[in-house]
Design a protein that fits this description.
The protein is of the alpha/beta class. Helix content is 38%, strand content 19%. The strands form five sheets. Strands 1, 2, 3, 4, 5, 23, 24 and 25 form an eight-stranded mixed sheet that branches. A six-stranded mixed sheet has the order 7-10-11-12-14-13, with helices on both faces. Strands 18-19-20-21-22 form a five-stranded parallel sheet. Helix 20 links the parallel strand 19 and strand 20. Helix 3 packs antiparallel against helix 5 and helix 17 crosses helix 19.
């Protein structure tokens, strides 16, 4: 069992952002690691000169010591600046005992038994890749829907091709309807985007079918468009909309069958029982396990999933299994908790810490809030209006956001904030600065998530305030061409996700897919950040490209840092969990255009080899 899942550790985590390495090492590793640490920090020449080192190893020459596995690799990328590359790593149980060449590790083993494993002798080992911000429930449900999206989706079952025009989208939608033999069976489709596929309304869907409910789930997953049959079947009428909060009512258009942002959150309670049937949930989550493992993931995290114990239990039923090849953490949705329990927000938040089990856990001392709308919906709050007019939408109105932010800040929480537009980012930074001036906190690590549109002055302000970034570099690839013409204009579209400026400013940044907002493939995210090539093949804002090392850290060490787990994972150093991703090539040296194509052999997860099958 991971120490992070221990209730006693959870209590400590809430009070201390940085548990020491002594606190997190397992006793088995701690009993023997000191000899290896001392020895492998010394060069071969120094070993010959210092007899005391061998004397130290001899003191551990005990037949009762457990056997160590030394993995040999073509290269091991450690992300440890003191030893960035080597060829051997010694593992004891689920922890890293020592790092160095195989010869070095053998020479300091003394009498402790060990075995050399050459399974990875011709492969490259990196720290275990981290899916820093993904949505397993949304991923599962969208991937088992009828996918008609703006890009190809490469799935274990095959490639689902893109729909590239309004006519192609409508033809695919009609074909999806036609292949369902039962005229009243629900049709759920995901991937629609009006910039690519043209307008779509309730009446358009009524023409497809008046007998079956049709739910069109927007590519952003922040909007629904439904037909009249669906409205009737699921009880969404004028009376229901009138009972929603005022802000949500403004984001509902019953006549068009369109619900977005707050309106979407309002009607999802009606639609979810149809979308998330037990069978669809199980099939979708089993897909998640296969997909993430195939892409080298050893840890996943969802900040701000739907606030439902029932849905969490459904996810646990699959993701918590003992044979899962990764652990998955969940960060509670502070928007929903604060709205429902404004006077007891913290105590209610702490109640959800017991919702995880087995290989899943709620992340103690962390919370998710939402600023502005989704990038795929062009609902970001922007300083300058969109080319078609308007400045975007709020998910949490600024007053509501400020209230919730203050409550969680004062309780010492790390706050992860969904924010996409530069005006949205202004609001987030204003709240950080106000609360820092009122109640200073050291290393609060407030995370600005997504960061689609930002400005240079905001980068400097983030650096000064100690805000870190979780960025989605796929936005540039998927949207820069289209949004240059429709929505943002060339300058804002090309400079989305300005990782070059962020990296030069020394701001810690991680990369995420927000799956299903982008493919949940860490190497692909690294590829997008390093190359910034759009779907047309051009390079958008070359000066905003990330370095390869920065991008690799973004899916490993910096991702762990953003979750306050860097003492336990993210690099290959003594004492951390033995989580490795096994690759066929080196993402730091392979042709930059081929980073996304590096095959994944599998992983070592907490000391155990897990090949992709």
């Amino acid at each position: 069992m991971c120490v992070m899942c221990n209730p006693a550790f959870a209590d400590a985590f809430r009070n201390y952002a940085f548990p020491s390495r002594r606190q997190i090492l397992r006793s088995a590793a701690a009993a023997t690691a000191s000899a290896f640490i001392c020895e492998t920090a010394t060069s071969a020449a120094a070993q010959a000169e210092e007899a005391s080192l061998q004397d130290l190893a001899n003191r551990f020459d005990q037949p009762s010591l457990p056997r160590v596995t030394i993995f040999r690799a073509r290269e091991i990328i450690t992300l440890d600046p003191d030893k960035p590359s080597t060829t051997g790593v010694a593992v004891l149980g689920d922890r890293i005992l020592a790092v160095g060449s195989v010869d070095e590790l053998q020479s300091v083993a003394g009498g402790q038994p060990y075995v050399i494993d050459d399974t990875f002798a011709d492969k490259v080992i990196t720290p275990g890749l981290i899916a820093q911000h993904d949505h397993p429930l949304l991923t599962g449900l969208t991937m088992v829907s009828e996918i008609i999206a703006i890009e190809d989706w490469v799935l274990p079952s095959g490639v689902v091709p893109a729909a590239n025009s309004p006519s192609e989208y409508r033809a695919r939608l009609a074909a999806a309807n036609a292949k369902l033999a039962n005229p009243v069976e629900l049709l759920v489709t995901w991937g629609y985007h009006p910039v690519f596929h043209g307008p779509l309304t309730r009446s358009d869907l009524d023409q497809i079918s008046s007998t079956r409910p049709i739910i069109v789930w927007h590519r952003s997953a922040h909007e629904f468009i439904v037909n009249s049959k669906a409205l009737r079947a699921y009880g969404i009428d004028a009376a229901f909309v009138a009972d929603l909060p005022a802000a949500a009512q403004k984001q509902c258009d019953l006549a068009e069958g369109h619900f977005w942002e707050g309106g979407m959150f309002g009607v999802i309670t009606k639609l979810l029982p149809a979308i998330a049937t037990p069978d669809r949930l199980r099939r979708g989550l089993e897909f998640v396990v296969r997909y993430y493992h195939a892409n080298g993931v050893t840890l996943g995290c969802e900040p701000g999933g739907l606030f439902s114990k029932q849905l969490q239990d459904a996810q646990n039923a699959v993701l918590s299994r003992a044979d899962s090849p990764f652990r998955f953490y969940f960060i509670p949705d502070g928007k929903s908790i604060n709205a429902a329990f404004p006077d007891t927000t913290i105590s209610e938040t702490e109640k959800v810490l017991g919702w995880g089990e087995g290989m899943t856990a709620m992340m103690p001392g962390a919370i998710k809030l939402f600023a502005d709308g989704a990038i795929y919906s062009l609902a970001m709050r922007v300083r300058e209006p969109y080319s078609g007019g308007g400045n975007g939408e709020w998910i949490m109105e600024p007053e509501f956001f400020a209230r919730a932010f203050k409550v969680y800040w004062d309780a010492g929480y790390q706050i992860h904030v969904h924010v996409n537009g530069d005006a949205g980012l202004d609001t987030v930074l204003d709240n950080v600065e106000t609360n820092m001036r009122r109640h200073p906190r050291y290393d609060h690590r407030t995370v600005a998530i997504h960061l689609a549109v930002s400005q240079k002055d905001q980068v400097e302000r983030m650096r000064r305030l100690g805000v870190i970034v979780s960025a989605n570099p796929y936005y540039v690839r998927a949207l820069a061409d289209a949004y240059s013409k429709d929505g943002l204009g060339p300058e804002r579209a090309d400079n989305m996700v300005r990782l070059g400026d962020i990296e030069r400013a020394g701001i810690s940044y991680s990369l995420h897919s927000d799956m299903p907002m982008a493919p949940g493939q860490p190497l692909f995210l690294m590829h997008c950040a390093v190359n910034r090539t759009t779907v047309s093949g051009r390079v958008a804002a070359p000066d905003q490209r990330a370095t390869r090392l920065g991008a690799l850290k973004g899916v490993a060490l910096s991702a762990a840092h953003s979750l306050r787990l860097e003492n336990d994972m993210g690099s290959i150093v003594t004492g951390k969990l033995a989580n490795f991703s096994i690759l066929e090539d080196n993402p730091l040296t392979v042709d930059a255009a081929k980073i996304k194509d590096i095959p994944v052999w599998g992983t070592v997860f907490e000391g155990k080899m897990r090949p992709v099958v």
